[in-house]
């Protein structure tokens, strides 16, 4: 069987360079090869994107961008099963969830179109004072400049929509660097944009294995906006090196807390925690990780969570029956196991899991009351591990939830409106879900990591806003 090759997508430049193998995280089989971009390829992509932005006469009209996005949506709909299957193969997310991701990505294109049709600027009040007499004022939106997007592996299709489709929608030339472990969904999507009529110069894609070269792409002064999804260590480091004037948005992890009150409905709480904790083997930035349950129900909740976890089918992500797939790299399995064994040695009760299934898969693990100083309690595990902690007082649970330097989405399960409101008011989080898990998201809502968890606000309309400037016109006329 011939292994397909995916070239870089840079305008007016033929593919050349070394090849990188892309393998299935589940079984290690080679899926494809991609070209490893060199510094001269990066320079060509940047020069092309920057010249494209500077040539205002050739900017794509609003009508043209909407037309291209409509065509992209149609093509993606025709190929949705292929997109889902290939995303599952390269990223390890089970097919049932990769299908959801593919349909979300299509809906993301729709959100881009809807936002373009409804958010074009605003009227600024004038003539309310003598100094503003005889004037009207309004704003219109313009693209901020060249966008460089660096993406993560865990949602290899939908994250590209959030970063790339948003840039295309607002009229920014964009260069995207997908994760080296999951580049194929990105390259497929960018080719769909080209197929839909978008000139290559407006959307270029390249894979870079050399971090020094990738850094040069990001920190170049021709970059107007930098969009990053990935580890906090890398994101904050890159932000510190950005050229003066480059705006950015960073999205990192959260160590998400959940509070389960004494009156919570466990019949609805447990399925939500199972999904939020073990979805994509816990490789989600807002995955359920720390569950603070009232002491009267904590052990029962943990045991029922264990009973649900052991029933989840772990294995081949392309199999229709699989609930939980592999971790993205074998070393991640080793790391997760190290963190779990550390917690058990320190006194955590291991209710289930705690073992490798294979080089790529790890058992769904439930830990009861691990100490607050171990890594599963203090850092994002990014694996199939959920910790349950008993609490006596609600405010004490909230204090523990808030005790880390990370803050993203949180959740509270309760039947009492006062409990829900108290948790909402006091949890350090950008969003609090009531009677739902922390990983809930639709692509039009704000999605923001706070403190060390990120900078700026994600969500397609908010990303589009960040990638534009609002240019003000003040018109003076004695006829006004």
Structural write-up:
- The model has no long low-confidence stretch (mean pLDDT 97).
- The protein is an alpha/beta fold and 480 residues long.
- The strands form 5 sheets. It has a 7-stranded mixed beta sheet, with helices on both faces. It has a 6-stranded mixed beta sheet with strand order 8-7-6-9-10-20, with helices on both faces.
- The chain has 2 domains: 5-252 and 453-472, Aldehyde Dehydrogenase, Chain A, domain 1 (3-Layer(aba) Sandwich), CATH 3.40.605.10; 256-442, Aldehyde Dehydrogenase, Chain A, domain 2 (3-Layer(aba) Sandwich).
- It has helices at 39-54, 62-78, 80-91, 95-118, 158-170, 184-195, 211-219, 232-241, 266-278, 298-309, 330-345, 375-378, 394-401, 417-426, 460-466; strands spanning 5-6, 19-23, 30-35, 123-124, 135-143, 146-150, 174-177, 203-205, 223-229, 247-251, 256-260, 288-294, 349-352, 365-368, 385-391, 406-407, 409-413, 431-434, 450-451, 454-455, 468-476.
- The protein is built from 15 helices and 21 strands.
- The termini are far apart.
Average of the residue pLDDT scores: 97
Shape: globular
CATH homologous superfamily placement of the largest domain: Aldehyde Dehydrogenase, Chain A, domain 1
CATH class identity of the largest domain? Alpha Beta
In quaternary terms, these chains amount to single chain
**How large is the count of helical segments?**
15
- Based on secondary structure, the structural category is alpha/beta
Strand order of the largest sheet: 13-14-15-12-11-17-18
Spans of 5+ residues with little confidence (pLDDT < 50)? none
The number of distinct structural domains comes to 2
CATH T-level fold name of the largest domain: Aldehyde Dehydrogenase, Chain A, domain 1
Distance between the termini: 73 Å
Beta-strand residue fraction: 15-25%
Instruction: Name the CATH architecture of the largest domain.
Output: 3-Layer(aba) Sandwich
What percentage of residues falls in helices of 4 or more residues?
25-40%
Task: Output the radius of gyration.
Answer: 24 Å
- Strands, total number: 21
